[in-house]
């Protein structure tokens, strides 16, 4: 279990790094959105590329940070039901949900996204909007995001098993934000 907990800490550090890095992309998206709005209203000019850049930046924040969100225990949950259970029962529910639902779904989305990303890359797929951007950089975020989410799911499952064995405190408690 010691090796698995070390792997869990490594995954946690990876997603903490990614979460810390992508938050700056949110600032860039807000700046682009603001400048684009001012230019559009003041000079009656706009560009599809700037609008698409905002969408791409949103994807660059949302998809890679999904694992970080899980690490911080901020995903939507059914706490109204599970909050009445013991921490051990909640840990067992988390393990079950991760094994039966999360990992299969994230694995399937990863697998199904690869041909789409590859096709977009080899064909240099461009947006259908006039002046739009190349699409593959945004599409590659899908498998990256789902790998990071899957890894964090694995980390959370390891921590739940360690908790059930009495090796660590309850990992299901809300963690502080960094």
TrEMBL record:
UniProt record similarity statement: Belongs to the TRAP transporter small permease family.
Keywords recorded for this protein, A-Z: Cell inner membrane, Cell membrane, Membrane, Sugar transport, Transmembrane, Transmembrane helix, Transport
Highest taxon, organism lineage: Bacteria
UniProt-listed Pfam families: DctQ
Subcellular location: Cell inner membrane
Organism from which the protein derives: Elstera cyanobacteriorum
TM helices/strands, residue ranges: 21-43, 55-71, 91-113, 133-151
Gene Ontology cellular-component terms listed: plasma membrane
GO-annotated molecular function: transmembrane transporter activity
All residue ranges annotated as the Tripartite ATP-independent periplasmic transporters DctQ component domain in the record: 30-161
Protein name, entry field: TRAP transporter small permease protein
InterPro entries in UniProt: DctQ (IPR055348), TRAP_DctQ (IPR007387)
Subunit comment: The complex comprises the extracytoplasmic solute receptor protein and the two transmembrane proteins.
Membrane topology per record: Multi-pass membrane protein
Biological role: Part of the tripartite ATP-independent periplasmic (TRAP) transport system.
């Amino acid at each position: 279990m010691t090796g698995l907990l070390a792997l869990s800490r490594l995954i946690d550090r990876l997603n903490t790094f990614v979460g810390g890095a992508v938050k700056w992309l949110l600032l860039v998206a807000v700046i682009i959105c603001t400048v684009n709005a001012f230019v559009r209203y003041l000079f009656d000019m706009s560009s599809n590329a700037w609008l698409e850049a905002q969408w791409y930046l949103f994807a660059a924040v949302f998809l890679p940070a999904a694992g970080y969100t899980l690490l911080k225990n901020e995903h939507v949950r059914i706490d109204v039901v599970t909050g009445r259970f013991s921490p051990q029962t909640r840990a067992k529910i988390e393990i079950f949900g991760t094994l039966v639902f999360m990992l299969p779904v994230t694995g399937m989305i990863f697998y199904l996204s690869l041909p789409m990303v590859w096709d977009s890359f080899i064909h240099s797929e461009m947006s259908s909007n006039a002046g739009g951007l190349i699409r593959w950089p945004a599409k590659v975020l899908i498998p990256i995001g789902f790998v990071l989410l899957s890894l964090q799911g694995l980390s959370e499952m390891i921590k739940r098993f360690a908790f059930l064995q009495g090796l660590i405190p309850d990992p299901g408690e809300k963690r502080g934000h960094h």
